Structures
1.
Amino acid sequence: MYFVSFLLLFPVLTAVLLFFAKGYLAKKIIVITSSVVISGMALIFATMNFFTLSNRFYIKDAEFVNILFLIIEFVIMCYLIYLGIRFKKYYVSLLSLVQSGILFWLELSGQAKTEHSFNIYIDKFAIIMCSIIAVIGCLICVYAVGYMKSYHQHHKEYKDRTTLFFPLLFLFISAMFGIVFSDNLIWLFFFWEITTFCSFLLIGYTKTKEAVTNSFRALWMNLIGGLCFAVAIAYCALKLHTLSLHTIVHMGAGAQAVTIPVFLLCIACLTKSAQLPFSKWLLGAMVAPTPTSALLHSATMVKAGAYLLIRLSPLLAHTVAGALVTTIGGFTFLATSLLAISQSDGKKVLAYSTIANLGLIIACAGIGMYEAVWAAMLLILFHAVSKSLMFLSVGAVENSIGSRNIEDMHGLIVKVPALAFVMLIGIAGMFLAPFGMLISKWAALKAFIDSNSILLIIFLVYGSAATLFYWTKWLSKLVAGVHHSERKDNQAKGCEWFSLLAHSGIMIFLCLSFPTISRHLIEPFLSEIFGYKISSIIGDGNIQIMTFMLCMIFILPFGIRVLTLDKTSKQKSSYMCGINTGDDRKFVDSLGEKKKMYLSNWYMEDLFGEKKILLPSIIIATVIIVVLLVIGIGGAL
Amino acid sequence: MIKIVSTVLYLVFAPVFGGLLAGVDRKITARMQGRKGPPILQPFYDIFKLFSKEAIVVDHLQNLFVIGYLVFIIFTGCLFFYGGDLLLAFFAITLAEIFLIMCASSANSAYSSMGSQRELLQMMAYEPMILIVAIGFYIATGSFSVGEIITSQTSAIATTPGIFLGYLYILTIKFRKSPFDLSTSHHAHQEMVKGLTVELSGRTLGITELAHWYENTFLIGIIAIFIINATWWSWIVALAVCALAYFMEILIDNTYARVKWKVLLNSSWIVAFGLGILNLLALYYIK
Amino acid sequence: MTIMNFTKTILKNLFSKPATTKYPFVKKEYPEGTRGKVEIDIDSCIFCGICSRKCPPNVIEVNREKKEWKIDPFGCISCSACVYACPKKCLFMNQEYTAPAPQKTTNTFTKGE
Amino acid sequence: MSFASKSPWLIHYDGSSCNGCDIEVLACLTPVYDVERFGVINTGNPKHADIFLITGGINKQNEEVVKQIYDQMPSPKVVVAVGACACNGGIFKECYNIMGGVDKVLPVDIYVSGCAARPEAIIDGVVKAVALLDEKSKSISQGR
Amino acid sequence: MTTQSITTISNENLISEVIKLKDEGYRLVQICATTVNSEYEITYSFALDYEFLCIRLMIPEEAEIMSISQVFAPAFLYENEMKDLFGIKINALSLDYQGNFYRLEQKTPYKNQ
Amino acid sequence: MSARSIVPFGPQHPVLPEPIHLDLVLEDETVIEAIPSIGFVHRGLEKLVEKKDFQDYVYVAERICGICSFIHGMGYCSAIESTMGIEVPRRAEYLRTIWGEMSRIHSHLLWLGLLADAFGFESLFMQSWKLREKILDMFEMTTGGRVIFSVNQIGGVKRDMDSDTLKLFIKIFDDMKKELTALTKAFLNDYSVNTRLKGVGILTKEKAHELGAVGPMMRSSGIEIDTRKLGYSAYNELDFQVITSPVGDSYARTEVRINEIFQSIEIIRQAAQKIPDTELSLVVKGFPSGEYFMRAEQPRGEAIYYVKGNGTKFLDRVRVRTPTFANLPSMLEVLKGCQLADVPTLILTIDPCISCTER
């Protein structure tokens, strides 16, 4: 109980402190201290509950909290309506008004006073999520302390608004804790809206025209989700007379009564997780400083949608809602993986990859089988770490070499070796064999087969092929051995560097320890929600193989040293049809002058370009949603 | 016990088998072209020579990656011949290939890098089919485990003929045979020079060649497990089918022009769909 | 449009004798008139030097005093210009070509007394 | 036991020849002469090659190219000059843009005469080069 | 054999003459320079089907001429060649190799020394 | 958003039997720009006329290129003969025609092989070159050399072909036709070959004319010009049609060249029937003076031999404009927008002869 309250309130306190803190040093100290405290507490909390945790409920009736929430909600609504009018985005005002209106009506008319019991619910899943959010979120904050300083040194054109920025980060973390812990749908909705609001402010940080447009896009898309959420709450309150997520989930799959709210919640989750056709807001979020992107993409925000869907997954198995979620998820995975091929902006590739991976998680959740949910949870875990690592390293690279374009990362292993290694670990974590993501993919594939879903298999096999392509080409860019004269200084120092290293460490630690995590956290949770004992998903033999592979990868470089293979080989210039000008970089061109060779990756714009497939995918996704909604809700009515 | 024996046998004899296969391949190809051709043992002479040559690299990282390639190819084969998980074996071979790609691009040389991009494209082309092969085995025999696949009552091919054909299709890419020898070719004259292997020479080239032999043995092993079931004679049939399949590859090698990358990508994906996915659908339908 | 229409040729090749000659294990028979290397019947030579002047790559050297006729076989282009030009018809084309060697040599023919 | 002689891979570069020798070099690979009988592969890539076949003389522009290719070959390596032009410039040795034979820029190991060099001569040259390769390989392994 | 007409024109008329030929549908066959005493004789050959005609310029060594590569695109190759071999100064080349077309050791070998 | 690669292509490159260099700018593998560089084979042999007299220069002329050797020799001789007003004996003209057409067959077969090699069809390459060896054997029988014949001289030819040889040749060609047909089928009907040739590197009729393309390159764009129709050597007494194809892609160029092989066989057959029995060569007296542009049809297209004599035994100027030089602009035109994989094929479809081009 104390832990929960602490985790919810302490970040808010930090935010307030940061808001009033003067000077960079003060902010730095506050951020670091509270980050240590928050992640420390979360970890202690997790360790305490690692082996033993019977699910717990907290906070029975808290009228004053509800009122407090109501007030905050009202303030936010007013602010949004004001902004909508000021920027002439009236639909934003309207959406905000309608969804908050529903809530106010529910609360004030007393309809929300169901015989519900507890507002907070803690189980092993909440523990996992809470640790991810705390650790990754705080590491991002620590990184941000170092990053924002150099960001404003590089971008003099933007006003330094870090006074607002840091508090928002912590507010965001607090809201995420809220989402994870809440059992009362109204509470959940409140925190849900806070994340929407915070992300809106964070995306619009630079206040450029693009940033404003993108932040409004993020806002209205999430508000649509919020609206669906609000309607779902109203439906639950009026028809089901309960607002407890736990209770609703236990009504069981296929229960006619829950069909409509589940549908609506699914739509809300899809918007939050930026699935097609709602993906554009997440791509637009790239205009924000890197820590924002990292925060939105890895541990928080988009994960909120995935989190709620996993909670709902027992209700989704073999239902139309489940079909909707899996189809959209699978389709998003395929479409955005293909789209990522044509991108050269590092952050954009990461954005598409995030959407794709979220699609996979959501598809797994939608299947509603325990193997699938197991895969989904591991994917959340590994994706959070490696994606955050990737974002932060891209940010650090941007500060060091002045660009975040993948083309400019050519030969990063020579230019900034330390960052390149960190990035290699991040990329390996995203898709390579012995690292975590792939083991989850293994399980996902198995679940897809067992669920007899040929469509998902199609999405997965082709999507994986595309994933392989765009990650590997990034990898191969990094390792190019350019000339030593191109060496650059690593601008990631202090906080940033610590955060990156910590991420890499966590990455490797997770790869080695995920069997334990699976046994003690994931499997008990699955047993509980599916109501029967879950045997281990992945055989011990296979785990040993994976571990063995991982060890091999790390032994390899040392092995080469021991065998002194690299010392006996002589270095010669590269093959350039016989006309290189003494080094590997230039050749004698047709006009008899020195010309710099340049090697670019493939983008296959005419096959996978945004112009080519983004719009059709959005249309297809919309059609899928509409058709399945009609079928599903039509069937329920 | 038998698992360990077969793994050790693989470790020791895969290069011998792969080398002989390459030798026979070169001989048959030569004869098809109306030439006398090299001796059968020529691949072994080549590889011994390569290991005795001076080792030159463009970048020392190449050594690391090329060894990684070999190690993970061998690991894949061992996993397979140990009777392990087929899907994991495919993941491992993907990792190995990625090592090779990194090796090629770490040289930062024009043709080597272009070769690695093409290799990547080839991987993207065959990846769906490779995964479908694993899925097909799983549906047909109920397991990813090679040990269980070869002791099932009926041969996998009985229910997965389409997947088998699709596998043979992408095998042309894996064997680096015309029409799909885009990234590097056994034949000299290519716009890519030697593509992936341009910057490898002497020992490092020898290692890739060795890895290629290990890989071929593994790939042919997969043809075999399509056929093998619990009966003893299925092993003999498997042997014949493997030989026939390889002969077909040589024939195709000699009767096709090298295609362009778009054709490669499109056709592989269409084949994976037309043969693989439809076969899976049929399998579900039967069940 | 057909696929693999070259198969017939390929298979025919596979099952028939290869076109490969057995050279160098069996010597090659050259047709009459093959231009190989220039040789001289030194005894009939009058050292007039026409061949030397006619030689396009200038590889023939004639020394009237020493009664010496020299040729650089590695620079010879086997054009037989010298053979046509020789007034005594003492130059002729051998069908054999000059064997490859690790050093460039000069063939010297000296007329004995 | 040295295997260098059993698998001589070659690279061919056309210096400034008239094509006559080049097509004869190519002809050596084709069915009638088929040098692959001796394990020869035309690699087209200096990093894989053991034997460097040069046809034609050397001029200012290809001098660097030839040197670079030679430099990028791993030892042991052998240079074979094919044809009169590669030996000493042939008929073109008086041209203003011909520096002379290949030996002006590289240590030539075997000279093959002819204009154009006959395939048989090229085969003989390669066979001799192969023997040399073996020697060089031995001396390198002793030198270690 | 077809007759071969060679018309000598003055330096200034070159472009207009060439444009006239282009309009009549001629294609460029070749451009050739010859050193005649201390002058250059530049011959432009054109053909229409089987018809063949030449126009000729006589220019002193130091004179500059206009490139016809704007009219006949393939002329740039011939003109670069003349530039490298003869040292003729040519203006407004569509693709100027700046004397690196042949990259000779001995610059402008055809120029009267 | 694609970035562009800048890479060198050649001079040393396995698909290029001869050195030529291109600066390639690529987007993925699409060629955006290609700037050529030649001069790796430049010898400067035109200047050798100052050192060799006009008769000896024949040996240099036929070494301009080892593939087009014969017609270079013949073209040079004809040009000199024209300036000197020599009427060459008819038998010599017929023999020149026969050797010239055999050269065309050999060159086209060589080209077919190289093309097959460029698109990665090794067995087709081998097959083409296997056939070509037969022609080379025929050359060696009649001239004593496989690639460089040294049979031309000012005023006629040095060697003769007797009627038995000619009959034998006709028989060999008849046998060869069967194999050629199989080869033709593979080149023109095979699916995979078609994907590499059809629609690749289209040169329109207008462009071909504008860029001054010559030979098969021009004829495959639908322009009906063949300088053999000018009637030099014995062509005025022989009956043949100019072969064209309207499309202008690589496929058309292949088609035109393959048809020319069959056409050449027919021309040789006609020539063998009509060949008159005269002497082989005239004795040349005097020195050339005046100038002449000789236009001859090489396998690769129209070649121009310009000679200018001054009445001494050394000529003022010899200039050879070879077909490849004229085709280079067309090559650059078709290279734009093609795939990297097409670069070798497209370079080859102009049938480049770099050593001719650079002399």
2.
Amino acid sequence: MVDPRISVISHRLSGISRIIAVSSGKGGVGKSMVATTLALTLAKSGYRVGLFDIDFTSPSTHIILGAQNVQPKEEKGLVPPTVHGLEYMSLIYFVGDNPAPLRGADVSNALIELLTVTQWGTLDFLVIDMPPGIGDAILDLVRLIKRIEFLIVTTPSLLAFETVKKQVALLCELKMPIIGVVENMKMDKAKGITGETGKLGLVYLGEIPFDPQVEDAIGDVAKLLNTAVGKKIRQIADSVILAKKRAP
Amino acid sequence: MVDPRISVISHRLSGISRIIAVSSGKGGVGKSMVATTLALTLAKSGYRVGLFDIDFTSPSTHIILGAQNVQPKEEKGLVPPTVHGLEYMSLIYFVGDNPAPLRGADVSNALIELLTVTQWGTLDFLVIDMPPGIGDAILDLVRLIKRIEFLIVTTPSLLAFETVKKQVALLCELKMPIIGVVENMKMDKAKGITGETGKLGLVYLGEIPFDPQVEDAIGDVAKLLNTAVGKKIRQIADSVILAKKRAP
Amino acid sequence: MHEWALAEAILTSAKQIAEQEKLKEVTEVTIKVGELQQVEPPILRFALSQMKSDIFKSAKFRILKAKSTLKCRVCGTAWQFNFKKLDKATAEAIHFVPEVAHTYIKCPKCGSPDFEIVCGRGVWLQDIKGAK
Amino acid sequence: MHEWALAEAILTSAKQIAEQEKLKEVTEVTIKVGELQQVEPPILRFALSQMKSDIFKSAKFRILKAKSTLKCRVCGTAWQFNFKKLDKATAEAIHFVPEVAHTYIKCPKCGSPDFEIVCGRGVWLQDIKGAK
Ligand SMILES: Nc1ncnc2c1ncn2[C@@H]1O[C@H](COP(=O)(O)OP(=O)(O)O)[C@@H](O)[C@H]1O
Ligand SMILES: Nc1ncnc2c1ncn2[C@@H]1O[C@H](COP(=O)(O)OP(=O)(O)O)[C@@H](O)[C@H]1O
Ligand SMILES: [Mg+2]
Ligand SMILES: [Mg+2]
Ligand SMILES: [Mg+2]
Ligand SMILES: [Mg+2]
Ligand code: NI
Ligand code: NI
Ligand SMILES: [Zn+2]
Ligand SMILES: [Zn+2]
């Protein structure tokens, strides 16, 4: 018995120029915030952009977007609804606010299913919001989408950066391209990770300040793009646009 | 073919009075910080305490503890080394600083193996530091250790609390006891979650301030216990000690 | 008609296999659809017939239905999934992504959502017959 | 001698099964040990013999070795694990927790650590014979 889904995935993604996974071994560093704001920023600049939330058991992007009362359309697959200019796909269409207790094998299967049936159409960028850890989601992305590029998010904390280092080691070993590292939630006095990033041979894409205003902007996209975080991500977006795919 | 390991787990844990999983659907809320500091605080109060890090792909507790050059002893199983007074078990003994790319099924298998072979001896408390998400680790703990109690960590952020709500819904449905909710990284102006916690029928165990000093105390246990975080967790430890097991 | 996307996957996969086996023409493709996903054979068949071309021109599609067995990881109970009990929205969600069954279905004995989908999950390619 | 803990698991599990099957005496227990974990049959046998009591008093322990097959999820390559190539510390780590193989072993063809341990992982209880 052959699983026919795998064979069609690259065809399904063939209309997409660049696929960027916003990733971090560590949880709570701002992956969802960066992924959502980056996608919105790229869309505002006139690019066609998709956002795919694959943190299936703890999705956040729908809350940041304030996405409500939207559903994909069934049409030769599933066509994602447009939310604030983004072709937006998430498991929440199918589970709502209910818990989705999925083991790794289920995460893998759900990811493959959505990659098989989602009709993204023509996009300049597909931004993928990842779960933390080094598990099924990242291993499947690497396996199924060879041309994926990683954008790594960390905080200045040793706990985050030590974890990120392991993920970078894994990606390097797998020869996956890394666009660079974003240092999120930087406090004024915090010792940065610019030097450390360089030592890993990675591009430092910039620091995003810790901005308490961000909380109030959750669910309000216009407000979000106007926070210090939104403004900084505009600069980071430029680097992302310019980045050539490069193996680390 | 029968997997013989499952049958011996409850026997292996039979010398432990209370098993507390420090948990949160959300990553980066301070699970590892709270779990480690709570375990250290209980040990300082004279209890016999174990700490078990089961965030296998992104472990943090060894960094917070500054645990170095320790290994379990092979003796009718694996006897965890004592680190700052804690019987301490982590996958890092076996992988060091290298990435451990484990799918969910591997996490499950490694967890079952360690539960099978670890000789905890007699303990008043075993504190378990959990990975984020609702996946293999939490499903296996619930399945294998019926008497486990959950301590939920969240931040005041909507993103964290919405995720935590789902996890609480799951635990309630499974009739697992929840000791209460700790609100970590509370900033002065942040709107708290005391009311929301009450609405869920859960005990609010207190707020831990956002304390930039904590970063400097990572790896230095004495310093950590003296931060605002350490002091607050001393009070929370009292509630934990007093908490009767209760189904939510 | 999201079945169209699944049908395309079947044809793409079948073509790859036919090429490996150096088949010039495929005469029969056997497909297994699991009950859990509630893919309707007539809809799938229609999608396949619309899309089939070149080596599949004269291919027949046999679509077999597989019962869906779920097995609880907590208490070991195995049971047949009965999708008639589900309301329409839930059935549709599972139709699109079978794994969300873990959100809606519980073990009939112990109430746990921690069950294994032993068989009958989705769409499988079972066999290909053809001429070299 | 962490095998002692595994032996205890085997006896606990075997006893549960014997009780279910209402056996008064167990005559033979067949155990399968996977090569990946490098459990030495003599050590396991010694541990079992030290711990066996009541219904196991006259039980024989058959310990079969199972080759360990790993299969790459990226490129599909299947291969036999050869633990002789590992240094001592790595071999010991895998001995304690076979899953850490994903940290040290890569697919010989594509270099990926994303492989399935198809068989020969750990210790299994294969069969129990006894008298009612
Ligand atoms: N630059 C920032 N300043 C302040 N808060 C932030 C910033 N970035 C993220 N946050 C907050 O931090 C928490 C974690 O962010 P999130 O994007 O959910 O992380 P992840 O997806 O990595 O788990 C959220 O509460 C979010 O609102
Ligand atoms: N009360 C606090 N004040 C300041 N920083 C904190 C506090 N609690 C945790 N942190 C920091 O927040 C980050 C996430 O904490 P961690 O314990 O690793 O979370 P988790 O285990 O939930 O992923 C770490 O960098 C940690 O040092
Ligand atoms: Mg996130
Ligand atoms: Mg659209
Ligand atoms: Mg942690
Ligand atoms: Mg000790
Ligand atoms: Ni459909
Ligand atoms: Ni041993
Ligand atoms: Zn059950
Ligand atoms: Zn390979």
